[in-house]
């Protein structure tokens, strides 16, 4: 086989927030089909996949499970790898972003970019989606929600490091214009250019201080590297990149990547942020980024809360691994979203796999055994009908090659199955059972059987990268090795006189639709029960840890659901009290009192709550990495500008409360005199640091 050179392919590393569903698994399957095809086509392939294990969402999910973040990602990364292995994904390395070699290089990369002036320190004030680990401006939101996942975003303000994206934007625009195949499909390229690059890039926040589960910025404790800078660099750290210039031979051989295969939802990170990071590091850009569409369940995104999630291992248990691989690739269009339903799975397996392929192979081998004792021999008794069959078989490789070069894997599968369909037609045309009745036509019958066997071998050699176990099984039943792709342009390499399997098994059995749907219903019912149980457990664990699903620590509130977490004085006033004496409450033990935690807070922001005469909403810093939103009913006594910059006293470990649609995460302490005047309590020493304990 001719060596066509190296081919480096990657998937997006899977996020370890939970078990990947079939829509996530599709990417690994598609990448594996491409990698296996390239290997069979003469390329020296290196295939990298793995797991993305840092970020605020991971930290929160770990708490939901009652685990440490490391324990949680060990579990979920193991689950991802198990599923990839189950689906027969032939990767060279499964990288984890908690791997030591990756961690060391991320710290080196961050430091290098900082020293050369591409990263600078500032403060972030904007909107953050915990689900996507991404920042957005108000104009990018859709109906006030994340434009990608549709989840709520929350205001985030914190000290952070930023990357000077605008410095490299003109160079990236020029590169994209000069390399039209860099971003595929074309619609994704147009989206990135028109929606992000041409309007102008904002500098990117590349560190966080509001949570701890990330790679530390080693020269500035308290900061962790933004998850996307961390994750994107896996494509080079996973093959031995060294930011100090001592990269491995593998890196020098493989980089730049030939293909980054990713989902369309993360195209912005891979075609804007990642190329700019590489430019800053002085490294070549990947040759191509392909943003594949989604696989939707009945036209909807899969969601545990909707109960419409389908998992690859459940499918494999019911249908077999290769059937799942076939369906995923065949049903995904090049550019538009694909659809998966249980009904459609049954239909495809029965029609394409059981009938077109399985029945063809079974009939052919059975006829060879029946008529010739299993010996397949070319006796040269050709007829005109053979010419068209051979033309279809020998033309298939060129068509599949063209499709795969353009990453049109579904079209490639269609071309392969067109050969199988032509072989089935050839059986109808030649009618071997009729030929078998006339001994004078034995040579012709033998030649027909040879042509069928050779055609199956040619098509199955092309099929093997998509359905590896099936390709090998067909070859084994025909007692021949799969063909080298370089030979597929000619017909007749199957060794005449070879004896096929005497008792071949059926490759794919027809499925009973009603039985499958009943099994599917049981699976989904089990998943719904598991989801509900998990949600209950998660809420309990979050509450025990004093956390919310945003990942922030809502250690305050101090009021019942639906009531503002107001300052103590305002709470009294709202209750209608006119005298401090009326507010004396039952005695508490010192143990009960010590459960409360009081801290000095610094008011960073303060604003009136729309449509409320009483409420103010604050952003209060109560620690180096802890900024809380607190709603307080003290507008009657203070205007917002009076309080900004002041040090105040805050209760920080009460349950959260909601008022006017705002979550309050603390209680501001105030005093009230007999006339109902309210005064916010402040420390005598205004220089005391925010976060200092009040004891």
Quick summary:
By secondary structure, this protein is an alpha/beta fold. The protein is 42% helix and 17% strand. Mean pLDDT is 89; it is low at 550-585.
Structural overview:
The protein is of the alpha/beta class and 695 residues long. It has 3 domains: 6-314, HUPs (Rossmann fold, 3-Layer(aba) Sandwich), CATH 3.40.50; 342-499, Isoleucyl-tRNA Synthetase, Domain 1 (Orthogonal Bundle), CATH 1.10.730; 568-694, OB fold (Dihydrolipoamide Acetyltransferase, E2P). Helix content is 42%, strand content 17%. The radius of gyration is 32 Å and the shape is elongated. Helix 2 crosses helix 19 (513-545) and helix 14 runs antiparallel to helix 15. Strands 1, 2, 3, 4, 8, 12 and 13 form a 7-stranded parallel beta sheet that branches. Strands 18, 19, 20, 21, 24 and 27 form a 6-stranded antiparallel beta sheet that branches. The model is unreliable at 550-585 (pLDDT under 50). Strand 18 and strand 19 (616-623) form a beta hairpin.
How much of the residues is beta strand, in percent? 15-25%
What is the arithmetic mean of pLDDT?
Answer: 89
Q: Number of helical segments?
A: 22
Count the E strands: 27
CATH superfamily of the largest domain: HUPs
Radius of gyration using CA atoms only:
32 Å
Structural class: alpha/beta
Number of domains: 3
Predict the CATH topology of the largest domain: Rossmann fold
How does the overall form come out from the CA principal axes?
elongated
**Largest sheet, strands/sense/barrel:** 7 strands, parallel
Q: Give the class-level CATH name of the largest domain.
A: Alpha Beta
Assign a percent range to the helix content: 40-55%
Distance between the termini: 78 Å
Known CATH architecture of the largest domain: 3-Layer(aba) Sandwich
Q: Unreliable runs, pLDDT <50, ≥5 residues?
A: 550-585
